Amino acid sequence: MNSTTSHTPSRCAGPIDRRTMMSIGGLGLGALTSGLSPGLGQLFAADEAGQQPNQDFSVILLWANGGPSHLETFDMKPEAPAEYRGEFKPIHTNVPGVDICELLPNLAKMADKYSIVRSLHHNRNEHSGGTCRFLSGYSATAANPSDAEYPEMASVVAHQLDKTARDIPLFVANTKFYGGGPAYLGAAYSPFMFRGDPNSGSFNVGNLNITQDAIKQLQTRRDLLATFDRFRRDVDRTKTMTALDKFNRRALAMLTSPRTAKAFDLSQESDQTRDRYGRTTWGQGLLLARRLVESGVRLVQLQASFKLSKEAGRVSNWDDHSVNTHTFRAYRERMPVFDVAVPALIEDLCNRGLDKRVLFIFCGEFGRTPLVRRQDKATKRPGRDHWSKAMSIFLSGGGLRMGQAIGSTNPRGEHPIERVMDSNCLLATIYKKFGVDSSHVYYDNSGRPVPILSDGEPIPELL
């Protein structure tokens, strides 16, 4: 059902030497591949937070880097002029009043299992700046920061849930988001990054591809280190070694954990299941994400990159300017794959009872311009540009209320007119489900206090 009331927006591999062991111990698995090291003050901060997080909630975020068009997906405008509405028609779903793009017939049959928020917006119209703004709740000072100036949501949650970490990483991703990152929380709260295509027969996860002989070697080295460290602790007056030992143990536990290695092993799934998700990067990536959250990972971030044909475009992201892609050809290639992988994940979560505690989100840093542009002089092909004034967010599961479209935009999809909400409202909703107090204050690198969110209230229609 559509929202019907309008009101004022609310605030809404191999042997590990001593130096390497010390390094990964200080970072934890989340930053094993980054080569960075946080300060001890940042490491201690997790023990001081004193939060009571939800022990049974996880998020899978399929991130359409570049910005997906709301008008080609979940906010169709069939009555708008042709230069706004584009080439596609809406189709009815099994929820009266909720229509989506005709390229998504499988999703149309199961709208009772997801919700769409059509009325979010923010104020940053560039890729990394928009990513930082959307995922952190704060506008970066730099126009296009490569790394987030404020910690992204997943890093905040990993920090807040730090005490729950055992032998599996809290935060997993396949690519660092452009404009994302842990910022002043430190590299310990970066994701564990896996490489490669889960749809490839040669897919493996580097550091987790550890033989039993290697595990025995690590155990022997750990015993030797323990003897040495007991001596070091005897003379340590600052308790620094005690803190580092904690992270040594955690990193080693994750590296050698059968549970972690098994979670990444897609060969454990039947051919029937893998076929149902689709033998594609998106399909096998989402199946991997399901395995990870089922094993205890709390946040999985996947880049929704897609290899287009030469006729459709020259980029693998969703940055559908006329100079990059023929927008409508690109969607004709992407969405049928999306319409296999995402319904399979939703059905799988429901069948396994995971829909009560696992939230799937599909979105990007912003929407696209309602007005179709033809800026490429050579081809005159249609494209849409950056548009942070309106965007659609797709959510399924997480124990939230499904089967609804919340909010609406004007007849041309230019800006929200009903249930107008800042994108921080989505973050506030996610933090609430994780049991994270969004008013909790961190201190940035200059010592300035910064709350997790300065504004934004959870979306009541979802809760």
How are the SSEs placed, and which strands pair?
Layout lengths: L17 H10 L12 H9 L9 E6 L18 H4 L4 E3 L6 E3 L3 H4 L6 E7 L5 H10 L16 H8 L10 E3 L18 E2 L18 H24 L4 H16 L2 H6 L7 H7 L3 H15 L3 E5 L23 H25 L6 E6 L3 E2 L17 E2 L3 E7 L6 E3 L1 E2 L6 E3 L2 E2 L1 H11 L6 E3 L5 E3 L12
Parallel strand pairs: 1-7, 1-8, 4-12, 4-15, 5-6, 5-7
Antiparallel strand pairs: 2-3, 4-11, 8-11, 9-10, 13-14, 16-17
Helix pairs in contact: 1-8, 7-8, 11-12
Description:
It is a single chain. This protein is an alpha/beta fold and 463 residues long. The chain has one domain: Alkaline Phosphatase, subunit A, CATH 3.40.720.10. Helix content is 32%, strand content 13%. It is built from 13 helices and 17 strands. The strands form five sheets. Strands 1, 4, 5, 6, 7, 8, 11, 12 and 15 form a nine-stranded mixed sheet that branches. Strands 2-3 form a two-stranded antiparallel ribbon. A hairpin with a 5-residue loop joins strand 16 and strand 17 (449-451). The longest helix has 25 residues, at 327-351. The radius of gyration is 23 Å and the shape is globular. Mean pLDDT is 84; it is low at 1-51, 209-215 and 231-244.
